[in-house]
Amino acid sequence: MKTFVRRREDFTWDGVPLLAYKEEPGTHFRQVTRQVLSPDSADFPAELRYFEVAPGGHSTLERHQHVHMALIGRGAGHCLVGDEVFAVGALDAVMIPPLTWHQFRATGSEPLGFFCVVSRDRDRPRLPTEDDLKALGANPAVKDFIRV
Ligand code: MN
C-alpha cells in the first residue's frame, strides 16, 4: 500500500487488491467487496476501507466493542444501527457505537459503496446467537430488515 492511490473509474484503486467474498452457506454476507486504502503503517492507528455491496447484497449482521465511522460513497441502501434502520445515500455519514448490531444492505437497483474507518487494534466481530436474533426480532422493523 502506497502513500497515494488513484481511484479508477469503477470505484477500484490502482494497486489495491479487490477482495471479493465467496457466497457459501455459513458465511454471513452476500455480494460484498472490500478494499483497504490506508497504508500498512504503525504511524496510522486506523484503517480506511471501502466496501461495496451489490444490489440485493448485505454486509454481516454483527457487533463488536470497536466503533465504525462510515461515509457512504455511492449508491443507496439502508443500514441497521442498533434498533433503527436508516435509508442512506451518497455522503451520508453513519457512526456505529460499541456493541451495537449493524448491517448494510443495498436495497435498491444500484450498488451501495461506503468508506469505513476502524481502529487498527480491534476485537473480532461477534455474530448473533439464536437468543440475539430472537431479541432483535422483537422489533418488527428490525426483524424485516436483517439478513443472516
Ligand atoms: Mn462491523
Describe this structure in words.
The chain is mainly β and 148 residues long. The protein has a single domain, classed as Jelly Rolls (Sandwich), CATH 2.60.120. The chain is built from two helices and nine strands; from the N terminus they run βββββββββαα. It has helices at 130-137, 140-145, and strands at residues 19-20, 30-36, 46-58, 68-74, 76-81, 84-89, 93-96, 102-105, 112-119. The strands form two sheets. A six-stranded antiparallel β-sheet has the order 1-2-3-9-4-7, with no helix packed on it. The longest helix is centred in the last third of the chain and has 8 residues, at 130-137. The chain starts with 18 loop residues before the first strand and ends with a helix. The mean pLDDT is 92. Manganese (II) ion is lined by residues 62, 64, 68, 102, 125. Manganese (II) ion binds next to loops.
Oligomer: single chain
CATH superfamily: Jelly Rolls
Straight-line N-to-C gap:
33 Å
**Main pleated-sheet profile:** 6 strands, antiparallel
Rg, Å, rounded: 15 Å
Bound heterogens, unique: manganese (II) ion
Order of helices and strands: EEEEEEEEEHH
How would you state the average pLDDT, rounded? 92
- Beta percentage is 35-45%
Task: Give the C-level CATH assignment.
Answer: Mainly Beta
Strand order of the largest sheet: 1-2-3-9-4-7
Helix content: under 10%
Unreliable spans are: none
Which structural class fits the helix and strand makeup? mainly beta
The number of strands is 9
Query: Per CATH, which architecture?
Result: Sandwich
Shape: globular
The CATH topology label is Jelly Rolls
Q: How many domains make up the coordinates?
A: 1
Count of runs of 4 or more consecutive helical residues? 2
